[in-house]
Structure formats: C-alpha cells, structure tokens
Amino acid sequence: MWDHQSLFRVSAQLFADGIFNLLDRNLKPEVFLLGLASARETDEPQAVVVEPATLRYSPTDFAGVKSLAAALEPDGPRDVVYHLHRDDHDRYEKLRWYGLLQQATQQTLTQICQVRAEERVSFCSLPISLYGYLVVVVLQLSRETYEAYYTLPPLSTGSRPTSLVNATVQEFLQDCSRALRESDTDDDRPVLDRDYNEVLRAAGRSFMLRAAAGTHGLYDACNGVAALRHEGDEGIGTMLVARRHHPAIVPVLTLDSPIPLRDHRRVRKLLELSEDRTALVSDATDVFGLGYLVAPDDQAYEPIFTVHFTRHYSWELTHDNQLMMKVVSNTPRLPQGRVDAANFAKAAQRVFPYLDEPTTEYLWELTQSATTQPTGTILVISEGAAQEAARLTRQSFRVAPRLMTPSVLRLVTNIDGAVLIEPNGTCYAIGAILDGLATAKGDSSRGSRYNSALRYVESSQYPCLVVVVSEDGLIDLLPPGVK
C-alpha cells in the first residue's frame, strides 16, 4: 500500500499495548491493517492487502467486503442531504460509503471469528484514503475479558460508548485514523506519540457524555470537586446524575437557585450534606438539591448513574449498582474489585498445588484482612519465607515464627513494608523492603509498592503468591496471570 505501512502497524500495536495494558493486561490487543484498492476489482492482484502479510487472515477472507457493504445499502428511498456546494455533497456520500465499508469489515471479522472459534472481538476504524487504498485499522481484543466488564445497552441512535473500554477503543481508532490522515505532512511516516494516560482521560470524558446525556464537562467537574477539601476533610459523598424531576428520584431538599456544577467549591460544600441513601441531585449541568433513589421494587425505579466521591482526588461512576469506572488523580481505570474467594483459591492452588481446602481458606482470611488496610500493604506467601526473612534481615523486622492471624495482620500492616508468611500461615518477618531485578512487566503507571512486589515475584527462587493492596484502592494478585 505504501512504504511505511509495516512501521505504522508496529507503532499502532505498541500504542495499543501501552493503552490497554493500563486498563487490563488480559485484553491482549492486536492491531492489523486492511487495505481495499479503490480502483481495482476484488479478483485483481493486490486488490486486498493485509498487513502484516504473515497474519492468520488472508486477503481472500476480505474479498467480499465491498459487495457486503453494497448489500448493506437500505432498499427503497432514503433520506438524502443535498448540499449547496457539489464538493460538500460528494464528501457526504463518500463518508456514507466509508461507514458501510466499516460495518462490512466488522461483520466479516465477526463471522470469521465465529467460524474459526476465535475468542476475539473486533473493532474497525473508518477507512482512510491513502495511496489508492482505503485503509482500515482493525483492533482485536480478548472477548472473554472485554465482555467480563459491565456495559450499558447501546443507544438506538448515535455511537456513544457503552463502557470505558469501548470509549478507549473509539479513542484509539480515532488516533490511528488521525495519524494516517496526517501522514503526508510528516515524511509519510504517521506518528502515534500521544501519552497513554491522556488517551484514557479523553476516553473517560467521552464515556461521561453517556452519563451526562451529551452534556460536556461532567468528567472535569467531578475531578474538580474531588480535588477540594472542606475544612480539611476529604470530599466523600454521592451525586445522582439524571434529568430534572426524574420519577425515580425522591426529592428531599430542593435549592431555590440551582448551583452550576462548574462551581466546584459550592458543590464540594453541598457534598457534605449527602449521607447514606441521600445524595446530591444533578443533571450534569446544575445541582438542584438532595434526593434519593427509590427502591428497585418500586414501579418508578430506573437505573441511573451515580458518582461516588470516595477520597481526595478519587471518584467512581456506577450504574445500576455496577461499578463502571474509577478515577484517581484525573486518570480513569477499570474497576478492580476486591479479590474474591474463587480467584484466590485458584491462584493459591496454581502456585501451591499441595494446599488443602482448610489452609486455602485460612490464607483467604488473611488476604481479606490485608485488603482492608487503607494505606496499602503487601502480603507475601512464600515457601521460602524463613530463608527470605534471613536474607532480608537488614531491611525488615524479623519476628519469632508464629501463626499469623487476621487481627495481628491488621496491626502489623500499619507500617510500611511486606509481611512474609509461609503457605501454612507462619510469619517470619514484617515491614520487609522487597528487592528484585528490573522486569519488562513493570508498569510505570502504578506505584512503587506494586512494581517492587512485581520485581520480587519475578526474581524469587521460591514459589510465592503476593497480595498487593495499593493506596489508590487497586488490589492485585502476583505473579500476573494467576487470577
């Protein structure tokens, strides 16, 4: 198609890895390019090009995309917008055809994945005309992981994102399309150099448009409110987001003059009034007062969006009691729920196959105790806990071996450092500063606690399972992939 198509594809793959690994490493993004020759029949050589050529898909798999796009054309008369300028009308028709090609490509990939039993979900960009080809950027993600997150039902009109992952997909494809369009201004070498977290912030803003019914500014307003303190206290409270006079919201107190949501200080002060079920009520533009959502068994009940201000610089978005997005320091992340018993048992059995059920349950009790530590902590379960405690003598507090209990664990995790225990629950050290060699699996978006634990796990000569509780609320089981 063009000289630097391989370079662009590799750049797009690295770009996708950087973005989606911040959300969930199990999404496993894969990027490839599909080129449809603008002026060639589908049976001509190079009429369809797939980059990379070694991909499991071949050009013949997409030979019917154009005919499928034509078949998607609705029968009968259609609404046509006529523009005064001929070029404008041609542009409208061209974009319409590009949209049909996008749908046809996505349908083709969906059918291929179903026939070949590939657990992948595919997303396609609008085609970009480049050097005689219509170039489509294709992004594929793990279907199991993508569908594991709660999503909103799609709207009948428009393309508002249904989840944070979906919003990130849209933002990624838009960036790729933008880079292709601008390729002729940069030595024909498209550049994807946008900061990964900035892409996620843009995706968060886009997703919040769904909660705000298209009203801009809700995402930044929530960040502004979460950043403020009131008389030294962190902002903790809830805000219901719905249209005014929503039948599912019972008003408790109505302000005579609504407070603009952009007035962060006044909204932050009003947040002190929210308590239990009672929350601020806003339509994403103004705060009208206080109210509460009716019970689910009420005829007027309807799932609505709720913003939970959890701590300084932190807030969460829920819908129908489903956590959809966590925002910490203006950067959105997918919800990382508490480690559940089933996942922990599976991880423990994988690392320590000899554990019996009572011991696994006991370790689970200790893990639950560790996850309640508000300032974060690390619990290291290692077959070599005694040897590691001796090795780390100068950077830990060694203790006389004793069976760790949940109540004692809550006490010893009040200080920095890791707690070292054996799989049978015997503790050998507290406040341990973990070491280890640098690893390519490190994540610069995570704090030192997570990365030091990851380095330790990757370098440890003993089988170990590590529970990392970060101060921002994220909980991880290491090594990666044990969940």
TrEMBL record:
This is DNA integrity scanning protein DisA nucleotide-binding domain protein. It holds the Pfam family DAC. Residues 345-483 form the DAC domain. InterPro entries: DACNG, DACNH, DNA_integrity_DisA_N_sf, DNA_integrity_scan_DisA_N. It comes from Hymenobacter telluris.
